[in-house]
Amino acid sequence: MNDLALRAINLTKRYGRFTALDDLCLEVPAGEVFGFLGPNGAGKSTTIRLLLGQVRPTAGRAWVFDSDAADAARAHRSLAYVPADVALWPQLTGAEILRLLACTGPGVDLAYRDELVQRFALDTSRPARAYSTGNRQKVALVAAFATRAPLLVLDEPTSGLDPLMEREFRIAVAEARDRGQTVFLSSHQLAEVEAVCDRVAILRAGRLVEIATIEQLRGLHRAEVTVSYVGAPPPGLELVPGVDTVEQVSPGRLRFSLIGPPAPALRALAAAEVTALAIREPNLEEIFLDYYGAAKSTR
Ligand SMILES: Nc1ncnc2c1ncn2[C@@H]1O[C@H](COP(=O)(O)OP(=O)(O)OP(=O)(O)O)[C@@H](O)[C@H]1O
């Protein structure tokens, strides 16, 4: 099987004169847990629909392993999909739905499925019409995680789950990774993406603005440094490359923001009698807001 689970080349979708997705180039290696982020309307669902072969690209192409994404019947043999709005057969019970879904995919680990039903505290004896949004989501997640499909495409999969179930979700993603499955996770839950993903892509107004590991993203964004010292403050700190907004928070205490490697700033600090130093790296939410803040006016 191909080493790439997903590949998009110049993938573009226009609706009339409006460009929902613009020239997306993306590669997701098999076995990776990949986060797909973007504000509302950025083009995440459009991308997923293109990857699933549900809409045709205006330009470009996409592949799921060796299959052209447009050949949905073939491509879907190697993936399981959890949509953002899970719709189930209202008259069937959870158990009947899980049995039905098991017949459609590339095979199911039944023992693991039963374990997931317990872990997600899902009452499978009830008809789907009686399920809450979160319970419908659980049925779809249990069905997806229990398949042996090499690729799991999850579109906002935890929006209806409570924190305990979110925790189960994170564990299930880690187990999928351990089995060698690839996970493509579109999410608004930035802490979740930060916790489970190897790499993330950030989409803004239909364009890919960043694709990197969380560590790399942190390196591109501001860390907040707080330094305590006795005697004279470190001289010339504001002139050091990467240092910005130096602020005296109290006598003997400075705070500044730092982008890039800390070595030049540390050399400058060495000139003072530093008694304490704290570097707080940005979390994914702050990184995302950096991009999002700059994007507000563009769509
Ligand atoms: N069938 C369509 N016809 C016209 N415009 C569309 C169509 N589908 C999507 N769009 C537009 O394309 C843009 C991207 O939509 P998309 O649903 O991909 O965003 P998203 O990132 O998934 O957003 P959300 O996080 O809100 O789900 C939006 O501005 C949307 O209005």
Automatic annotation (TrEMBL):
Q: Where in the cell is it found?
A: Cell membrane
Residues of the ABC transporter domain? 6-230
Keyword terms of this UniProt record? Antibiotic resistance, ATP-binding, Nucleotide-binding, Transport
Which Gene Ontology molecular function entries are recorded, alphabetically? ATP binding; ATP hydrolysis activity
Q: How does it sit in the membrane?
A: Peripheral membrane protein
One GO cellular component this record assigns the protein to is: plasma membrane
Question: Which parts form a coiled-coil structure per UniProt?
Answer: none
Q: Which GO terms describe its biological process?
A: response to antibiotic
SUPFAM superfamilies xrefs = P-loop containing nucleoside triphosphate hydrolases
Output the InterPro entries linked to this UniProt entry.
AAA+_ATPase, ABC_transporter-like_ATP-bd, ABC_transporter_ATP-binding, P-loop_NTPase
- What PROSITE patterns does the record tag this protein with? ABC_TRANSPORTER_2
Q: Mind telling me which SMART domains this protein's record contains?
A: AAA
Q: Which domain of life is it from?
A: Bacteria
Family membership:
Belongs to the ABC transporter superfamily.
By its UniProt entry, which PANTHER family does this protein fall under? ABC TRANSPORTER ATP-BINDING PROTEIN, ABC TRANSPORTER ATP-BINDING PROTEIN NATA
Q: What is this protein identified as?
A: ABC transporter ATP-binding protein
Which organism's genome codes for this protein?
Micromonospora orduensis
